[in-house]
Amino acid sequence: MKKMYIAINSDLNMSPGKVGAQVAHAVYDYLYDKILDTVSCSYETETIAHELIDLKCDLTSFKNNGDTICILKAKEAQLLKFKEKGYLTIVDRGLTEIPKNSITCVNLGIFNEDEIPSTIKRLRLY
Hints:
Keywords: Hydrolase. The chain is of the alpha+beta class and 126 residues long.
């Protein structure tokens, strides 16, 4: 079974509503990036169609098998390491309860249970 993993910045003490909004940004941006990556990889219509079908199959498999999203907690220092490794990082605009440019969460991606990197396995549930 595949699961999506999102790490929340535990140093910020965000309200439950703020955490929910940041998780929504992390999921939306992840899917948005996947779609754009798929479309921009090739300029050939047939290739794009096949890649979109593959993406649809991956997302359908994730959805049909429980579409589990694990929300984990991590210190900002760990989130910075994830950001440096290229994981999708959500940075707040500072319009509500936390300072501008704060890293609120990182989408670590979707993994099969036997493929989860050890750095993710060490994190605890939020």
